[in-house]
Fold this sequence. Notes:
The protein has 368 residues and is an alpha/beta fold. It has 7 helices and 17 strands. The strands form 4 sheets. A 6-stranded antiparallel beta barrel has the order 12-15-14-13-16-17. The chain has a 5-stranded parallel sheet with strand order 3-2-1-4-7, with helices on both faces. Helix 3 runs antiparallel to helix 4. The two termini are 42 Å apart.
Amino acid sequence: MNIAALVSGGVDSSVVVHLLKEQGITPSIFYIRIGMESEEGFIDCPAEEDIEITSYIAKKYGCPFEEINLHREYWDNVVSYTIDSVRRGLTPNPDVMCNRMIKFGAFNDKCGKDFDRIATGHYAQSEQADNSVVFLAAAKDPLKDQTDFLTQLTYPQIAKAMFPIGHLMKSEVRQIAHQAHLPSADRKDSQGICFLGKINYNDFLRRYLGEREGKIVELETGKVLGTHRGYWFHTIGQRKGLFLSGGPWFVVKKDIADNVLYVSQGYTPEAQYGKEINLLGFHYLSANIWEPTELEGKADDSWCIDVKFKIRHTPEFASGRLTKHLDPINGTVYHLSSDTKIQGIAAGQYATIYDHDAHLVVATGMIG
């Protein structure tokens, strides 16, 4: 089998190469550069050490190695999406878009098309159903599961993806790396959004969206508590950076048209929680496991089914009901109702919907 392995120099992708070699597969290793060093004022992600380790892994296991520069594709697809989402008052998820548009998108178009599979160090699994349909499935390690970051992959991308460490706990991955004497065995997991390099996120937003003073208002009383420099610097549920006395204060609502932030006090204010989630762009990742069997064909084409879901990167699954109904104005509408109140329902983020066993990823939609 002809395998392309995306290796970053971290422990997870390094162990991917080790496991493939144990299976008798010699993958072609690719390191993707997405830093924005060509954009004025940007400093590239510290790639030198990553490339050094990746090059060592390639030599250790006798694998072909190539660096692929996708920084322009990253700018056009991921950075632009981030800026546009923030401008519209949404909470973007660059990691989700990077996986779809870059790691399994632009890379495949440029190099991956010549390979049978693309292997990555994501904590996820693939599972083939009886009808040969390939599903994305949750990883063994609930703390590291990354299926919510893969929730926008297309079906051809899912069918081609390979996740060699998805059946392992993180501790097992570290143990394998130590036993194999890999230089990445004790490297810390990467944090943050790579395209920023050493640029602060707010500095990045300021560069492209500027500043505009607005009011900070207490939600319950309407009292003006202070000012901010633009709603785009703040996200729902945010606590830091408000510079208000008598806190803690949390951002619970944004008025985009008037550039107003609404805040509420207390660690768990009621305003931060909700149970109802509208889904935009709802679609099934691999196949519709609920229709058309016992659910399709009802006169009103409406149904409600119990599901597990996530609306952020967390090891916990929420339980609730997914409802489909026909609206005379908006057409087919999908809606999530949580069994318990959940924090930080943010428009622009993605809901990942699993089967009732919290195993298979069935569907997704953007929170509206």
